[in-house]
Amino acid sequence: MKLIMLGAPGSGKGTQAKKIVEYLKVPHISTGEIFRKNMRENTPLGIKVKDIISEGRLVPDDITIQIVHERLIEPDCKKGFVLDGFPRSLPQAVALDSLHKIDYVINLDVENEIVIARTTGRRTCKTCGTMFNIHEIGGEIVCAKCGGELYIRTDDTLEAVLERLEMYEEKTRPLVQYYAKQGKLVNINADNEPDKVYKAIIEAIKK
Ligand SMILES: [Zn+2]
Predict the structure, then answer these.
(1) How far is the C-alpha of 165 from the C-alpha of 184, rounded, in Å?
(2) Superfamily, domain 2-110+166-206
């Protein structure tokens, strides 16, 4: 099964994608994770996208499309995949349609206030990249997995979040209509607890 996770930054796409790939036994393709890994390892791609991402801007379509394309032709994607963070614009969606037949597009619908609270509460491990939320870990400053230092990503500050929400409205929101017209859109209320959201998604894709 080939799925796309759609939703504003902080809608819980990443969290849900991780659970869904366990259920479907397909790879989780997160463009954000691919970019951050490259930035941590200072690869040519990482160096190229570092400033763009830390300023909260969108990585240019041609770079993102190329990276996703290269990832999706790997053998583990033959049975399917869950895309998280891609497509983020109409040109990206059109490019993806020319390469793969998508089964469902899960749209996580969430209030902006909730997005802001979730995102600004995010803490990321400097060493392994695992993300935590202060609503769950309190004032903890080290990673529960590896002991690495937790920090606030520059793209998780309030200013950056507001900017990304605006960018989402402008560039990504039109995809909701785009996939609704194709009859692939599944709307999920993502204001709920993650477990409830997950159950609603599984119910919808079982049909
Ligand atoms: Zn860690």
Answers:
(1) 24
(2) P-loop containing nucleotide triphosphate hydrolases (3.40.50.300)
Query: Ligand 1 mean position to 19 CA, how many Å?
Result: 20
Check if 36 is active-site. no
| pLDDT of res. 57 | 79
Has 206 been annotated as catalytic? Answer: no
Q: Is 122 a catalytic residue?
A: yes
101-146 pLDDT tens trace: 999 999 999 999 988 988 899 999 999 999 999 988 998 999 999 9
- Per DSSP, what are the bridge partners of residue 7? 108
Low-confidence spans in the chain with pLDDT less than 50: none
Q: Does a cis peptide bond (omega within 30 degrees of 0) precede residue 87?
A: yes
**Please, which residues have CB less than 5 A from ligand 1, an ion?**
125, 127-128, 130, 143, 145-146, 148
Whole-number Å distance, alpha carbon 145 to ligand 1 midpoint, is 5
Say whether 71 is catalytic. no
Active site annotation includes 196: no
Write out pLDDT tens, residues 52-67.
987 777 899 999 999 9
Sequence-separated (6 or more) residues with CB below 8 Å from residue 172: 6, 8, 88, 89
